[in-house]
Design a protein that fits this description.
The protein has about 240 residues and is mainly alpha-helical. About 70% of the residues lie in helices and about 5% in strands. It contains 11 helices and 2 strands, in the order αααββαααααααα.
């Protein structure tokens, strides 16, 4: 992928078109809170420069995002993330990736995150522990799919940072964006959100007990449960279609 001036694109290389990769990148930024509802996106020229893509590909991507209801574009006020359309529902409606993508996502998380959690057990600060408790308190409420997804990402990225290994922490934080498409499915229904919250409760209880083996085990169990939720929801979607 290259920009108008020939620079290599900052987006990952895959079999998708440049426009599709831009769509995925902006979707992930929206879901993980880089852009909040109502936020204005950078101007086209700046965004194309930042991603090192052509403005033609960027405009195509923005048109797709507008058609899906994720952004609104108005002359004179720029491009903004929509305030009205539920982001997770809109994303889930267009996530038609191959099954292998979801399997790779689950496998990646199950290999990496239990070890991050194990390291975090002896290194987590009181402030980070308080952040995790605050996330749990918030997710215990009757939140919608969008907020549940954002709280889920916050919980896991806080644990990644608490590992105190900057390389592994970066990998953990990247995992939150790489796997966001799969995670959407686990938050669409109330059962999935409850299962996610219960898993976080077990993980934090083990962290509070400072038991690294229990933390790693709780994280592994949580991820397996979430994988089952995703498989069930995706299976229902396939049957419905």
């Amino acid at each position: 992928m290259t920009s108008d001036d020939g620079r290599a694109s900052a987006l990952p290389r895959s079999g998708a078109t440049v426009a599709e990769e831009i769509v995925r990148h902006i979707e992930r930024d929206i879901v993980t809170g880089v852009y909040a509802p109502g936020d204005r996106l950078p101007a086209e020229r700046s965004l194309a420069t930042e991603l090192a893509v052509s403005r033609t590909a960027l405009r195509e991507a923005l048109s797709r995002l507008e058609a899906s209801g994720l952004i609104v574009r108005r002359h004179g006020s720029g491009t903004r993330v929509t305030r009205e359309v539920p982001l997770s529902a809109s994303l889930a409606a267009r996530l038609e990736r191959a099954s292998d993508d979801f399997e790779h996502s689950a496998e990646f998380r199950e290999l990496v995150e239990p070890q991050l959690a194990r390291l975090a057990t002896g290194r987590i600060t009181a402030h980070e522990r308080a952040e995790l408790h605050a996330v749990l308190d918030a997710s215990a409420a009757d939140v919608d799919a969008d907020e549940s997804l954002r709280l889920d990402v916050a919980f896991h990225t806080t644990i990644a940072r608490a590992s105190r290994n900057p390389l592994l922490a970066s990998l953990g934080e990247l995992a939150a964006t790489w796997t966001v498409e799969a995670r959407v499915y686990s938050h669409l229904g109330g059962d999935g959100r409850r299962i996610s919250h219960a898993g976080h409760v077990r993980i934090l209880a083990a962290l509070d007990a400072r038991d690294p083996d229990a933390v790693a085990q709780a994280m592994g169990q949580h991820l397996r449960e979430i994988r089952a939720v995703i498989d069930r929801v995706r299976g229902s979607d396939t049957t419905a279609h």
